[in-house]
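Handout, page 2. Input:
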Amino acid sequence: MAIGIAFIVFQLLTFLVVDNECKINEFYRWKQISFEGLGLEHDGSVTFPSDESTETTESHTDPNIDFVAYNNVPMSVAHYKGKLIVTVPRRARGIPSTLNYVDADLPIGSSPSLRPYPDFKTNELEPKQLADHTRIVSVYRTRIDECGRLWFVCTGALEYDKTIQIQRPSLWVIDMNTDKVVQRYEIPESIIEPGRGIISLNVDVDMKTCDNAYAYISDFLTQSLLVYSLKENRMWRFNHDYLKYDLELTKYELDGFKYQWYDGVFSVALGTRNEDGYRTAYFHPMASNSEFSVSTKVLQNEEASKRVSHGDDFKKVGERGRLSQSALHDFHQRTGIIFFSQIARHGVSCWNTHTPCTPENNGLVDQNATTINYPVDLNIDHEDNIWVLTNTLPKFIYGKLDTNEFNFRVWRTNVFEAIRGTVCDWHQEHAFGPGSGYSDKWNDHRHDQDWHDGEWHHNMNWKGGHGYKRH
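Output:
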């Protein structure tokens, strides 16, 4: 009898552990950001002001370089061939480099110093804050396309107490195999006036035709979507009511802070390519619980952007549910699943696009108000890894960071590990069983060479021996 009770207790404890396991794994973490490669290294790292310094800059060996460690808040992460691109937009003084990288082969839980990418000279501010097309002023988020190129928008603005527009916002493309700039497009004032609202983008390209690429760029400030053609070296702008924020969802209460952010369109995720070569572009304002879509056939048509009415071109896909405001999201091409950074829930969620977009079909992958605090960026690399960056941004803006605690984190998991046990898991019969109406639409990945008995074995021993923790 005692043995039987002990067995039951063991089973219950096992269930609780499995049910509460982490789906996304901490990769790197920082209490404060540090740099190297600036020429100010001392014992391998830069000397920063004290933790108590939040507004002033202490003197350094080079008085022309401005450092305030506290003000460096990372905003984005992207992975390519063992390198992580990390951005630090210039939202305050004391940020030496806005576009940076770290190697991805360091021990889990490391706090690596950032190095300027492609170099410090490109990232260093012009001493007199004059326009210089060879320099990058401020970058929010980046994306890496199938051709190995890094895309981002330089806002051209210093967002200090008063915004200083040093130069026109510009779209950059860098070949990550050579670290050379292959394109810089200055965004005309006729398209957009201020640059500080351009905070994310996605890139549409087939690696067979790398020159024929399109960038879809979100501007939350003007609530518009910009489209750039690499082949034509032209840009145009779309306006639509679905790109605008929901006023009722502009109010937030996070970490004890109440605030209101009027954020329009914030993210674009690209679906699989159809037979005609076009894709569905899924998008949402950050202040919204809804998901919308438009065909890239429409977006790539400059003449369509000039229409007064777009008819049914822009569509409402559905609702994600209460408190589902999302910053960034990305589409996994092999499964058709979209992953969302859930800022109001301090977590990551998923929706299988083979099902209707309803609250019931949006599953929570993981959440933790302490560690997964404010997931400000999310994207999927070409190896089926989901990368997330969290940065406790509301606390930085409205409160004060504890520099003795870890404030910034990079997270990683693989797609199949993330969906396991969620409504997005195609193995679950209740989600995609007989009679569901969706099983015939689902790509049968059970026959993929890397998919065996429900376990994802791809890249288990990634460079540096990280591997994925098996729970």
